[in-house]
Write a structure and sequence with these properties.
The chain has about 260 residues and is of the alpha/beta class. It is about 45% helix and about 10% strand. It has two domains: about 170 residues, Rossmann fold; about 70 residues, 5' to 3' exonuclease, C-terminal subdomain (DNA polymerase, domain 1), CATH 1.10.150.20. It has a six-stranded mixed beta sheet with strand order 3-2-1-4-5-6, sandwiched between helices. Strand 5 and strand 6 form a beta hairpin. The longest helix is centred in the N-terminal third of the chain and has 22 residues.
């Protein structure tokens, strides 16, 4: 049997659903978000038809990225308290429709998903990552796609090239140059996506760009030369880890359509 693994970025799904619910923060809004999240998960299962599926949650403790860069995710709005307090209810509800959840205290969902996606793809299985977080696009390959569940769009290699104008395996370097504001990763000041893509299409990778920064005329060359250290740090922060020892058995996440 060929594996088709649906990996769900659980908090991305839940928080998007919660934000779309009318009304103020409180138990009623959480209950509405719970029902809608379950319905969204059920729709994703119908549309994707996976053989295996898992909901991945972020750990509650700081990750290795916070150690490397204490300002990581600084300024991000915290999850509403009423919603955060009910995460176990969401996990239980997802389990009732046949999808188990995983969470490791010091690991981000991004790295867990990257590791699981890589393992399945290495066995020639296909992977669908359900998330609107563009960070996952660095994982896109012939076997891995990222699905925007809300827009019903599969973000594959053609999508990446059409939208960001680089290959998926160049996205880590693109985000290193532009930064990733959602996570408070700065990159190189004044370098936007178009400039970063142009540089990568001409010079292939970040190391090549930084090695010739002193020859690039004007403000761009000055910024690249002056902020080379920040670019390298940003590259470390945006690159997803795909080699974490998780101790998970794929058989535990078989989806039986219950």
């Amino acid at each position: 049997m060929k594996i088709k693994f649906l990996l769900i970025d659980a908090l991305n799904l839940i928080r998007r659903v919660y934000a779309a619910q009318p009304g103020t923060d409180g138990p009623g809004r959480v209950n509405d978000a719970l029902r809608t999240s379950v319905h969204s998960l059920q729709r994703a299962l119908r549309e994707c038809q996976p053989t295996h599926s898992i909901c991945v949650f972020d750990g509650h403790n700081p990750s290795w990225r916070h150690t490397l860069y204490p300002e990581y995710k600084a300024g991000r709005s915290p999850m509403p308290e009423d919603l955060n307090a009910q995460m176990d209810r969401f996990k239980d509800a997802f389990s009732e429709v046949g999808v188990r959840s995983v969470c490791f205290p010091t690991l981000e969902a991004d790295d867990i998903i990257a590791t699981l996606a890589g393992k399945v793809a290495s066995r020639n299985g296909t992977v669908i990552i359900l998330s609107t977080d563009k960070m996952f696009l660095q994982l896109v390959s012939d076997l891995i796609v990222v699905r925007d569940h809300f827009q019903r769009v599969d973000m594959d290699k053609t999508y990446v090239m059409g939208k960001l104008h680089v290959q998926p395996d160049q996205l880590v370097d693109l985000f290193a140059l532009t930064g990733y504001a959602t996570n408070n990763i700065t990159g190189v000041p004044t370098v936007g996506p178009k400039t970063a893509a142009k540089l990568l299409n001409e010079l292939e990778n970040l190391d090549n760009i930084l090695s010739v920064a002193y020859t690039i005329k004007g403000k761009l060359g000055e910024m690249l030369y002056k902020h080379a250290g920040e670019a390298r740090l940003s590259r470390s922060l945006v690159r997803l880890k795909d080699d974490i020892e998780l101790g998970l058995n794929l058989k535990s996440f078989r989806y039986t359509g219950q």
